[in-house]
Amino acid sequence: MVKHILSISNKRNTNDLFLIVFLLLFFSTAAQTQDKITDGDTQKVSPSFLLQEKVRQWVETQKLRGKEKADWAEQKSNMEALNKIRLKEIEQIDALIKAAGERLSDATNKKAELLAEQDKLRNQRDIIEQRVIAIESSLRNKLNIFPDPLLSKVKNEVERIRDKGNESSLQDRLRDTVAILSAASDFGNTMTVSNEIRDVDDQKTVEVQVLYLGFSGAWYVSKNGKNSGFGKAYEDGWKWTEDKEVAQPLIEALEMYQKEKSPDYVPFKFRGND
Question: What does pTM read for this prediction?
Answer without folding.
Answer: 0.57
